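Why should sequence recovery work at all? Because a backbone constrains its sequence more than one might expect. Tight turns favour small or flexible residues, buried strands favour hydrophobic ones, and helices have their own preferences. The token representation captures these environments compactly. In the example below, the structure is given first.
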């Protein structure tokens, strides 16, 4: 595996993990105290604005979709330089890309 592929994988994993952790913290701390999540209405003074939650949820979805596409497409670039038949390359890249599902 070439160095750029390894760095792409590492970057995507670290970026996804960091944002996922930040998103988890936001979800857990969106209302103060935590029990207010069940008793308060959205947008109350004890909770984050619904707009902030929606925006970060969209960002999380975009980041996760980007990571899925990256892990799904990356095997094509890894397999393209192998010295095997074209048919075998397609099969190997397909099996590796299938793991992204």
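From this structural description, the recovered sequence reads:
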């Amino acid at each position: 595996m070439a160095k750029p592929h390894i760095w792409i994988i590492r970057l995507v994993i670290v970026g996804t993990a960091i944002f996922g952790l930040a998103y988890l913290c936001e979800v857990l701390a969106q209302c103060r105290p935590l029990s207010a999540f069940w008793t308060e209405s959205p947008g109350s003074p004890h909770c984050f604005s619904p707009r902030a939650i929606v925006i970060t949820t969209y960002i999380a979805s975009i980041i996760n979709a980007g990571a899925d596409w990256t892990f799904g497409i990356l095997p094509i670039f890894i397999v393209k330089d192998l010295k095997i038949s074209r048919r075998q390359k397609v099969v190997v890249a397909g099996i590796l890309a299938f793991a992204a599902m």
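A few observations help interpret the result. Residues 3-98 form one domain.
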